[in-house]
Design goal:
This protein is an alpha/beta fold and about 290 residues long. The protein is about 20% helix and about 20% strand. The chain has a 9-stranded mixed beta sheet, covered by helices on one side.
């Protein structure tokens, strides 16, 4: 792995792939994640800064974002991808490829079925993303069974896996020895993360990728890969997550609410036992530190 530009190591970007929409998974629904990233970064370097934003509406702002990314302005990018055919223009992804090629660390989180389809525009050093992140529209031979069955949510379809309720947790097994998982956990050998009724599916597809975490479906019992790390030589690391609900405010504190299309009944598990978030918080801090070269 190539280290990020030292001059940019103290700068991070939390970016969504959609324009600001209060009734969607816009960046305002990741305020707790933003604060976690800031706290972790400033604990290492008081000059650490985080930019948190949706994809800009104005052409000038988009051009500035693309220019900053291509110039290596950020040591790490946290990309939340809830788009569905309404994502960034190709220039954004070309700039992101340039950033990662120069050493920027990238974390990608999307969700079920075809959310985050804008990522299919990636190429170059990020070509593997289009296969590791799976989509219904591009998966030949996709199993037709669907674990998630809710007539009230007809757009939620395979590929997805049920790991629990929003507001509840899942117990993930550590699948690798790596600094990203070097923190003390609530259960030795495992990491407790927020659950979700229809997480997306990710798969290792290259020799440079390793599974970091996995859990199991509470519906079928099948294995669910939770996180994958891709450390190809000569570029920044890429971390894949099976869902952005590992980081969304709603999954950390259900009282913060969700878009009105979310109808799955939530759990009060985390609300009743907030200490269950200790592993999630430590994991975010570990990703931040790794992106800063720590």
């Amino acid at each position: 792995m190539t280290s990020a530009n030292p001059a940019a190591a103290n700068r991070a970007l939390l970016q969504s792939t959609i324009a600001t929409d209060a009734n969607d998974w816009c960046i305002a629904r990741f305020r707790l994640l933003a604060e976690q990233i800031r706290q972790a970064g400033t604990a290492i370097d008081p000059s650490f800064t985080l930019t948190a934003q949706d994809y800009p509406a104005s052409g000038a702002a988009r051009e500035q974002l693309h220019s900053d990314l291509a110039a290596g302005a950020y040591g790490q990018v946290w990309l939340m991808a809830p788009d569905l055919d309404n994502g960034p223009e190709p220039a954004f992804f070309a700039a992101l490829e340039q950033a990662v090629a120069a050493g920027t660390q990238l974390l990608i989180a999307r969700d079920h079925t075809d959310l985050g389809t804008s990522l299919l525009a990636l190429g170059g050093c990020l070509e593997a993303v289009t296969q590791t992140q799976t989509f219904k529209r591009t998966w030949p031979g996709l199993p037709c069974d669907s674990e998630y069955v809710n007539p009230g949510c007809p757009t939620i379809d395979t590929p997805c896996v049920v790991t629990g309720q929003n507001g509840g947790v899942q117990i993930c097994r550590k699948r690798a020895e790596h600094p990203l998982l070097g923190f003390e956990t609530l259960i030795p050998g495992h990491v407790v993360l927020p659950a979700h009724p229809h997480e997306g599916v990710i798969r290792p597809t290259t020799a440079t990728q390793q599974v970091l975490l996995s859990s199991h479906s509470i519906t079928s019992g099948r294995e669910q890969i939770t996180a994958i790390l891709d450390e190809a030589p000569g570029r920044g690391a890429v971390v894949h997550h099976s869902t952005f609900h590992h980081f969304a405010d709603f999954n950390l504190e259900i009282g913060r609410g969700a878009p009105d299309f979310v109808i799955d009944p939530p759990s009060t598990q985390i609300d009743q036992s907030p200490e269950l978030l200790a592993d999630q918080q430590a994991y975010v801090a570990a990703v931040v530190a790794y992106g800063m070269g720590g």
